[in-house]
Amino acid sequence: MSSSDQGLTALATPPRCIADFCLVPIGTPTASVSQEVAQVQRLLKKSGLKYSMHSAGTTVEGSWDDVMRVIGQCHAMLHERGVVRIQSDIRVGTRTDKKQGFKDKVEAVEKLLKDNE
Amino acid sequence: MSSSDQGLTALATPPRCIADFCLVPIGTPTASVSQEVAQVQRLLKKSGLKYSMHSAGTTVEGSWDDVMRVIGQCHAMLHERGVVRIQSDIRVGTRTDKKQGFKDKVEAVEKLLKDNE
Amino acid sequence: MSSSDQGLTALATPPRCIADFCLVPIGTPTASVSQEVAQVQRLLKKSGLKYSMHSAGTTVEGSWDDVMRVIGQCHAMLHERGVVRIQSDIRVGTRTDKKQGFKDKVEAVEKLLKDNE
Amino acid sequence: MSSSDQGLTALATPPRCIADFCLVPIGTPTASVSQEVAQVQRLLKKSGLKYSMHSAGTTVEGSWDDVMRVIGQCHAMLHERGVVRIQSDIRVGTRTDKKQGFKDKVEAVEKLLKDNE
């Protein structure tokens, strides 16, 4: 293996990311998913990461590894509680030009909307 | 064409849906997307549909056709303003068991979290 | 309403798009979704649109309205067959700089990979 | 912290998952993303994980941690090459009822389509 190969394999994941995930249990007896979503919120609270629930998912911010681990733990927790299949959609963004939390993103847009009223 | 084929082709799209979309312009000079997101919010306001912006996208509810048309119009509007390529991620849900708006979904989870505190 | 407002509301959706969708039935008795995915493939075949199934979804190309209508019809068809709740994730792209089909995208990448071998 | 809290925090992520991701660079000079996608394919090849590219993304299978790390490394690699902002959409599925690779999913649907012809 060349040193450039080793470089890629050892490449560190991003120190910061904002991820928004929407988790769907499959093959559950009812069409309601609110029980599962509530359990996910409890796990996120314990994680210590900054997060925010909205009607179409939950936004989390932190290092790439921390954020992805906690989403994986949500899957694992629901499997433990008997859900045999889970599908999540994750939108994840990383940037190197500035540190931006998920609240800053909404504020930037709201400022623009106000300025042009 | 058999009558069953005609049935499928003429099938009406769902009368209600909740969609959450995250639109990303590609090949723009800057890494900021807040200008584009603000323009999307203005177009949504004019559409008359119920919508709500959050840090990872915008949630809209209405008939399938109305919701998908307005998201398509967001693409068309940004193309008109010079963005040559746009990618959106849309999470869309439909259900026949009950009428549920996007605010009801959050309230259902919050109620569960409160009950179990 | 000003004439510019009317312009936005009447804005045509894009004449071409490539969409990739992954449909998930919720509250079905089993964790298998292959029956539903097969029914979706049959409906797509009848639509006359160009499409291609892969393990994580189905890619369709056509006008924005045609593509979104057929995905909505997939939801409607499965609701008719008794699925009470359906969630889809749709990745949709539009561009004005060139006409590119979904096969062209893969070929462009494969060419780059070959050139640099 | 109660022992049940500790249990949640230490929860292992799923041993297997199938993820499909679509990575989009933001703020790049051109609307083409094929260079970036080609670099992602090279990194995946070196990872040793099973993967498959299609026109709307790349499917990878492996343990949750391995799969998420390699996607994070794709972001990190493109940042190193000067892309300041990257957005990915990841569809990820886990199941405990059977071991299913991404090729098996397509075959299950194709079998159904054949049986009913």
TrEMBL record, chains A, B, C, D:
Question: Which Gene3D superfamilies did the record assign?
Answer: 3.30.70.930
Q: Which residues form the Thiamine-binding protein domain?
A: 19-110
Q: InterPro entries from the xrefs? A: MTH1187/YkoF-like, Thiamine_BP, UPF0045_domain
Pfam families listed in its UniProt record: Thiamine_BP (PF01910)
A cellular component term (GO) from this record? cytosol
Q: What top-level branch of life does the organism fall under?
A: Eukaryota
Protein family membership: Belongs to the UPF0045 family.
Return the protein name.
Answer: Cell wall biogenesis protein-like protein Ecm15
Instruction: Cite the source lineage.
Output: Eukaryota, Fungi, Dikarya, Ascomycota, Pezizomycotina
